[in-house]
Design brief:
By secondary structure, the protein is of the alpha+beta class. The protein has one domain (2-142): 3-Layer(aba) Sandwich (Aminopeptidase). Helices cover 30% and strands 33% of the residues. The chain has helices spanning 12-28, 40-43, 85-100, 115-120; strands at residues 2-5, 45-50, 56-65, 68-76, 106-111, 124-125, 130-132, 135-142. Strand 3 and strand 4 form a beta hairpin. The longest helix has 17 residues, at 12-28. The two termini are 28 Å apart. The mean pLDDT is 95. InterPro entries: Acyl_CoA_acyltransferase, GNAT_dom, GNPNAT1-like. This is GNAT family N-acetyltransferase.
């Protein structure tokens, strides 16, 4: 089941599971050293899915920056990988963006290893690779 919540709507257990999933996936597994928590969390839409046991196994956050909509911190629990959940998260993000921010351009900073997934879903690369939090990224947009 999918959930969309603002920061103040998150239950404490859900917030803990989100932070744990993000840290495990984006910091520990990728051996990156950076502060995952930032002020964006306060204004973001937190999109997540829970498995049959009620544990969060997929997550992303959606937020506005200027006139564009962004998303990031996309994470899938290790036990849920290889089942299409990453693609499902991005499709759900696009659905939420269309509902909440119709007609707005979506811009992301995508890690190079997932560019192919985003391209299959209609995103276009608009920059040369750059390093962000010790990892190669590119800017991508999803046209209006």
């Amino acid at each position: 089941m999918w959930y969309q919540k603002g920061f103040k709507e998150l239950e404490l257990k859900d917030f803990y599971q989100i932070v744990h999933l993000r840290l495990e996936t984006l910091v520990v597994e990728q051996t990156r050293i950076y502060n995952d928590l930032d002020d964006v969390d306060f204004r973001a839409i937190h999109l997540f899915q829970k498995d049959e046991q009620g544990n969060i196994d997929g997550y992303a956050r959606i937020f506005e920056r200027g006139q564009t909509v962004h998303f990031g911190r996309v994470a899938v629990a290790k036990d849920s990988r290889g089942k299409g959940l990453g693609k499902a998260i991005v499709e759900k993000i696009l659905e939420v963006c269309e509902q909440k921010f119709p007609g707005r351009t979506i811009e992301i900073e995508a890690q190079e290893q997932v560019v192919g997934l985003y391209e299959k879903l209609g995103f276009q690369t608009v920059s040369e690779p750059f390093i962000l939090a010790s990892t190669p990224h590119v800017k991508m947009i999803y046209p209006k």
